[in-house]
Amino acid sequence: MRISVLQDQLARGLNIVSRAVDARPTLPVLANVLLATDESRLKLAATNLELTIITSIGAKVDRAGAITLPAKTFSELVNNLMPDRVDLNLDSATQTVNVRSGMTNSNIRGISAAEFPPLNETFTPDVVMPAKTFREMVLQTQFASAKDDARPTLTGIYTHLEKGVLTMAAADGFRLAVRTTRLEAGSGKTDLIIPAKALNEVARIIGDEDKEISIALSGEQDRVMFLYENTLVATQVIDGKFPDFTAIIPKSYSTAVTLYTSDLLKACKRAEIFARDSNYSARLMVKPAPEPSTPGEVTVVGRSPERGDNEGVLDASVEGSSLEVAFNIRFLIDVLSVMNDEQVVLESNGAAHPGVIRPRDRDDFVCVVMPMSTTR
Questions:
Q1: Angle at CA 367, nearest 5°, toward 333 and 352?
Q2: What percentage of the chain exceeds 90 in pLDDT?
Q3: C-alpha to C-alpha distance for 300 and 311, rounded to whole angstroms
Q4: Disulfide-capable partner of 231 in 31, 55, 81, 127 (CB 3.0 to 4.6 Å)?
């Protein structure tokens, strides 16, 4: 193999695929990234056997070939090269690649590409949708997924397709986030639990351009695949049954508060500074307007027995009765940080009941947060 590529493209490609490299691989070759020529392109791939990422970049191919190189070593080297042409020349006898760029000359010993797990790149899309919408759906649900493996199904994002409506939901036992969107085309019914880590990688790859992402939801061997531009992400689905989250979402409320999203987010971040010492418990106190011509109030309070306290008062439109409730303030920050809406609605049936957070002007997103004890 003898090829030439541009340093910035090679660095970006390695950054994309290296996320699939396992920190503690079961096989030496799984710590490597695959480099393989494909006509006038260079294919890069990495896998941990559960998640596989494949991408390609433009290349001048003088001699075809393939090799795997240590992902960490190769990425660090390429990232520290000058933005110039990079020449890669494989010595098949020693499985060593000479990397030359400008005045820099390096040699990296690899492992034969024959030892790399076979790649299945057969792709038949079930869904084609705006990539930005898909990215937003992932970001507005993944934060609520469980971070430990005690309940494996909760480490994934439930993905349901039926009658042209795509629903994604995540829950960790303390909160629930649900996002839906209607597709321009789509039929059939699909239920999958996709690892949140894999969907995070897809969201990370997607840029801000108005492009499309293709999704194969019914792949072989319990795998789901995503194709965005020149990058293919494949992951195993999680076996199990996701909880019936529709039963968790309250159907009514005794108090509804409408606030500006940015104002509430800033107040929560200030309260979080002090609430850290109290298991991140912060109090929200809601007061209806004393007169029709005046606004209601929401007070966000974070206290630390050792370091002090913070209290922020916000004007709000309050419907219903007064309320005092405690939440894990990080949970509120997580959901408010992924909401692009100007105003948000907080609904509750009292201090012992879950809070519901949703955009004021849309009905395609909802987050449910369980309360904390209000004992002083």
A1: 90
A2: 87
A3: 6
A4: 55
The average confidence (pLDDT) of the chain is: 94
For the stretch 335-368, pLDDT in tens is 999 999 999 999 999 999 999 999 999 999 999 9
Q: Is residue 93 classed as helix, strand or coil in its secondary structure?
A: coil
CB 138 within 8 A of CB 177: no
Domain at 249-369: CATH architecture: Roll (3.10)
| Fold type of domain 127-246 | DNA Polymerase III; Chain A, domain 2 (3.10.150)
d(CA 332, CA 337) in angstroms, rounded, equals 8
Nearest CA-CA partner of 215 in 94, 123, 147: 123
CA–CA dist 313, 293 (Å, integer): 18
Domains 2-115 and 127-246 share a fold: yes
Report the predicted TM-score, pTM, of the whole model to 2 decimal places.
0.91
CATH superfamily of 2-115: DNA Polymerase III, subunit A, domain 2 (3.10.150.10)
d(Cα 35, Cα 331) in Å, to the nearest integer?
42
| Residues forming beta bridges with residue 313, ordered by sequence position | 299
d(CA 112, CA 90): 11
